[in-house]
Write a structure and sequence with these properties.
Strand order of the largest sheet: 5-6-7-3-8-9
Distance between the termini: 52 Å
Number of strands: 13
Bound molecules: adenosine-5'-diphosphate
CATH architecture of the largest domain: 3-Layer(aba) Sandwich
Radius of gyration: 21 Å
CATH topology of the largest domain: Rossmann fold
Order of helices and strands: EEEHEEHHHEHEHEEHEHEEHEH
Structural class: alpha/beta
Oligomer: single chain
CATH superfamily of the largest domain: P-loop containing nucleotide triphosphate hydrolases
Length: 304
Amino acid sequence: MLMVQWLKPILVCEDVVKEYNGVRALDRVAFRVEEGEVVGLVGPNGAGKTTLLKVSLGILRRENGRVELLGRDPLRDPKAREKVGVVFERPNLPSAVPVHRILSYAASIKGASRDEVRRAIKLAGLEGHEWKPFTSLSAGLKQRAAIAHALVGSPSFIIADEPTSNLDPVERIRILNLIGELNRDHGITFLVSSHILPEVVRIASKIVIMNRGKVVKSGTPEEVLGGLTRARIRGSDVKTLAEVIREHGFDVEVQGFSVLVKIPGLSHQPVLLEALTNAGRRGVVIYSIDFVEASIEAELMKGG
Ligand code: ADP
């Protein structure tokens, strides 16, 4: 028997136009989020990501186009937002109040139980910190509190605007991993914006690239990154680093204190990581790895 399971559209945007005082911030934007996906919305500052997220939620009016959030137009029907959690860039919860009380208050508004508050604290990895005032938490824990806040009411979809932008590199990875886990283990669909492409690529099943109010590219990470990807790696001993990476079959160029490596595709990234591990065994300390993609860089530079 042939089993066909249709993916349920969670968010559909078609031809969406948004203007601020006659200046176009969203120019006929079209994209969709299907059930179970983690969609990464990527673009430089000012691209229109926050505007798009707010229009998708019905917090901002649109001039034109169609938005359907969980089957409803969020502008006409606030019920559309009932099963949607939101995490904004700088979590701004009441500062002097213990997080548990903030979450309990959110639960009372959403008609959620005490058990749901406990579950949200646990899922967000906030256990042990829930009785502290929001203001006393580290940036990473503040973000976890914001995620717990979004989780109250058991949303099927979470929209997160730059959830990692104010965090240090270790916290960034932890928050991204948390989003990945909530998607994989708890079936929550995500739309996550970021201005750092390599970061969202780690967890996204689909990438939508925006620049100047337009979607310039979208697809699976493989489709979006396609072609030649490059990595710039900084290390303590560039000569040895280049040598080891070359031994693993890569095309390498030394540029000052860094090496530029051409990576033929996403599937080669694990081989590169293996090369870096081997370089480490030969005494090289790796300071940083940045993935760069020529065609996306070019797209983002266009008129920008
Ligand atoms: P991003 O989230 O990608 O950084 P935004 O959606 O914040 O981009 O901004 C998109 C464009 O809209 C930018 O040019 C920004 O200056 C403009 N913009 C955003 N909010 C407002 C506002 N409230 N009034 C006027 N212009 C705005």
